[in-house]
Amino acid sequence: MKIKDSKLYAVLILVSLLFGSCRKYVEIDTYGSRTLKTTNDYQYLINNRVNFQTTSIMPIISNDDISGTPSQAAANQWGEQVLKAFLWSESFYGDDQQDIGWNNLYKHVYVANEILQGVMESADGSESQKQIIAAEARVHRAFAYFSLVNQYAQIYNPSTAANQLGVPLLLRPDLFQELNRAPLQTVYQQIVTDLEQSIDVLPNRPAINHHPSKLAVYALLTRVYMTMRDFEKAAENADRALALNPELINVADYVDATYPQVIDDPEVILSKLSSGSVTGPINAELVALYDVKDLRLTHFLENNASLNGFKYMKPTKSGSFYAVVGLSTPEIYLNRAEVYARQNNVAKTVELLNALRMKRFRTVDYVALTAADIQSDLLQAVIDERRREFVGTDLRWYDMRRLTLDGAYYKPVERTLNGQTYRLDANSPRFVYPINQEVLTLNPEIGQNPR
């Protein structure tokens, strides 16, 4: 079935919504039409943060950062859609409701495709400018597809990925094309291809962190290869990223000061934001992982009496309503540490964990980890550090998914509400989000995910 009139592209078909905030960025040839002609037209598209910034919210809700036994008062604040995602329900949305995460991410894909189709033939720009714009578009497209397959597709397994279903893989801005799903392996191959084709022309670091850079490409390739379980390539790209000396913030510097806003945060390599926020009690098991002097316990979280526990507060302290869910320096350190742990390299695992942890304590309170502290289970030590660092972001959901292939390192998650218990086991089909019924009604070839 063709995509004509599909709600998948409702936000895209209405091009006036896409470009409405930047009419001056494109030329108007005739009444009611708008044409991208010059390289600067495409430059304005890539510069406009609205086109690529906002992603999704459900991975923050479905992961186990939030307590499995929230109070009724906390649950009442969430609304029906959030509550359904929290309980990994059969569906998240009603028949006439939109999946904002799906729409946002496919909007990123569409804008990137629009740029890639026309920028190299655009007028008045230099070859270098065109190449950089195209490279940035490829990175944004790769990020969107990674997010899509880690929400709406099966968990990547190298031995079966060629036969696993991915998501519709759209590589041109054609509103009338088939939406059959590509194999999961094919989607990942496209992600890698997009990233590898962008590296050479991008600057080492971004002038502004919503623009992709070499550092962002290496960071995203590391994340992608970790998920694909190609740990050798994950390590190679993490090393390339670390060679560019990405900066870590000393949280102690901001105990009595405002945390940097997203655009000024040196740890943010590629700025992306969640599509909303959720307030909920933090899992007590997660809170117990923090040392009482770990500044993340009081700076990333905040004790909240009404929720009978901690809530995630880092976005609020940086002046943002939304969580930062893009690419960051701490992820590079912890991805590299994880590969070392999987290789049983105790010394290098300790070194990288300490490089991050020393920035999360006051100097007077910091005690370096030793090999004796973690050598009994190196991988678990890294997983615990990831949980402390990435609380309140989508990374925990992506970690939970990939850790299902690591035996005991995935622990089943239980949630209880209104006297009923819900359980997410490693082999549960609920690790894959449902496709919104409104999309399926108009595009049945996509097919619903097993529930």
UniProtKB/TrEMBL annotation:
<dbReference type="InterPro" id="IPR019734">
    <property type="entry name" value="TPR_rpt"/>
</dbReference>
<feature type="domain" description="SusD-like N-terminal">
    <location>
        <begin position="90"/>
        <end position="226"/>
    </location>
</feature>
<dbReference type="Pfam" id="PF14322">
    <property type="entry name" value="SusD-like_3"/>
</dbReference>
<keyword id="KW-0998">Cell outer membrane</keyword>
<dbReference type="Pfam" id="PF07980">
    <property type="entry name" value="SusD_RagB"/>
</dbReference>
<dbReference type="InterPro" id="IPR012944">
    <property type="entry name" value="SusD_RagB_dom"/>
</dbReference>
<keyword id="KW-0472">Membrane</keyword>
<keyword id="KW-0732">Signal</keyword>
<dbReference type="InterPro" id="IPR033985">
    <property type="entry name" value="SusD-like_N"/>
</dbReference>
<comment type="similarity">
    <text>Belongs to the SusD family.</text>
</comment>
<keyword id="KW-0802">TPR repeat</keyword>
<dbReference type="InterPro" id="IPR011990">
    <property type="entry name" value="TPR-like_helical_dom_sf"/>
</dbReference>
<feature type="repeat" description="TPR">
    <location>
        <begin position="215"/>
        <end position="248"/>
    </location>
</feature>
<protein>
    <submittedName>
        <fullName>RagB/SusD family nutrient uptake outer membrane protein</fullName>
    </submittedName>
</protein>
<feature type="domain" description="RagB/SusD">
    <location>
        <begin position="331"/>
        <end position="450"/>
    </location>
</feature>
